[in-house]
Amino acid sequence: MRLEGVTAELRPRSDWEAVDLGLALVRRDFWRLFASWWLGMLPVLALSPSLLRDYPVLLVLLCWWWMPVGSRLVLFVLSRRLFGELPRWKEIFRELPRACVRRFGFRMLWARFSPWRPLTMAVEDLEGLRGKEYAQRVRLLLRRGDATVVMLALWRAALTGWLALSVFFTAMMFLPSGQAEEWKALLDAWKDDSWGEIPAAVGWLGLVSMLLSMSLVDVFSTGAGFGIYVNHRTWIEGWDVELAFRRLGNRLRGAGAALLALLLAFGMTPAAEAEVEAGPKETIEEVKSHEEFTVHAVEERVPKSGSSSSWNWDGSWLVGIAQALMWLILSAFVAFVVWLIWRYRHLLRGSGGVAAKRVPPPQARVVMGMEVAPESLPPDIPAAAMELWRVGRRQEAMSLLYRGTISRLIATGGVEIAESDTESDCLRRVTAEAAAHAGYFSGLTETWMRLAYGRSAPPDEAMQELCVSWPFAEGRAQ
Predict the structure, then answer these.
(1) What is the third-level CATH fold of 366-468?
(2) How many angstroms separate the CA atoms of 220 and 25, rounded?
């Protein structure tokens, strides 16, 4: 992953702004993503029609169940395109077998019904996490806007059905008048609660409408989930800050290189280049290669008379399968509602009765990978930091002062800082919960980030001032 090659603006966004970012990424390369999705469905579409050509409902269900494979190819292209790499079709074809078999049981059985699939799929495929690490990473990402991901899943289901019906009935409006009786036969078959004989043209139209709807909605929903994933990592890991410091460093290095090139250029004389005109043969070949001079051949195949087919359905066992599927979906929906009630039960508690005591969260011992536990710090933090600064270990000195400040804010200031908080998150919490120390901590945070990310060390006087004015020294007012 190369942040300097990113092709979109990385900045902290709200959840719905992140969804809009994902949709914009899909629109930029829509046809490549759309074709990649259908490439993922190729194994099912190649085998199923010969086995299920008389049962389009089962064929649609099988394609719906296989959709995560197409989503993985869409995510494969999106993730590399964001960081400046456009995968070739050869690479996408090479990714297809892995998308089909990687963690097949987990993805196609348990995770297939997860409403957070567009987000968790990015954790699994792009970060390669498994087991406990995967679960911890997903919980960390879902701290922000898990309701947005669930709402996105509900919209995905609604849009799929609405778009399928729209395509179906719009296409029926353009059917020739001679096929009106086939449409009437279809309505009568459903009205009489019997499957009957459905004309082949109408059956294929319904099948194509549903597949087209699923493909369009899934491509865009995968992009929306990827946008949420990128936004969450920007909030947690500070991608925008890191990218800004890298660009600043590149500009400074570029200025020095330009000055050196200017000095060297004074001692060089430009070499004259001879222009070689293209001969008449090359000019003719170039003109003939244009699209206007390309010969196109159109081959028309006329079907033999009497070859039209219709689907004769035996509904004796298919009705039972449909009913079982209906009860399965209903049971899954009820279980999902019960899980939502249990998951957000704290929002449903009434204000009457004895209020439940709020259990304070455990104090963080590691923040951004840095030890902040009191036993890991020296007794006199400013003196130890100043000693490290004098011997030239400047980043260690600033890190010690920053860690010590966070440790004291957690222990004595009552600030609830989580292990996953970034520098910006810590500053917001201190400003909201410990206003007395907000000014000092703001200056310390700015100095620390300049040294840690931009390799810009403050003057000795500034470091000494931070140590002298440290608000948690003994005898100083809190």
Answers:
(1) Four Helix Bundle (Hemerythrin (Met), subunit A) (1.20.120)
(2) 9
